[in-house]
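User: Thanks for the earlier help. One more: Outer membrane protein beta-barrel domain-containing protein. Can you show the sequence and predicted structure together?

Assistant: Of course, both are below.
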Amino acid sequence: MKKLLPLLMLLSLMSAQTYETYGDPRDLSFPGGYIGLSVNYGTNKTIGFQASVAMIIPYSEPGTFPFIFPGIVLGRRYSFVKKNSYNYRDVQLLFLTPRAFWAGAGYGVVSINGEKKKRMKYFGGFLLGGYTKEYILNPERESFFNGFHLGLGLPLIGNSFYP
């Protein structure tokens, strides 16, 4: 898991670099996307770090909002109360509007003490900040996370996603 994240980031950067980066972005063969790094602070005294990689779905005229980004997320969360941490990974779908509002949902797996459980999340925000609500689906007891999100998306310029 620790080696997978840097590898994914490196592969994404390398693949973005193999495309022409000058001239009209609409002439590029890569559709565009982003690499995101973020911190989540929960209302139940937890902190999490996550990295995401996403590529835009070109569904209309290039550069037309809203943008739709399917992506992969890897993260780690630590509880100051329970003094333990866990890893998670999921797939997500993010929508970005012309006024920099964003929202989305994700579904994945969390690994707590070697036990894997399903996980769902909903999120939304504006520019760098937002709110996220996550559920760990557990037959004995459903647990959740409410928290604030602070993140930075590094754009990967392409034929559908450009300034």
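User: Great, one quick takeaway?

Assistant: The chain has one domain: 4-20+30-156.
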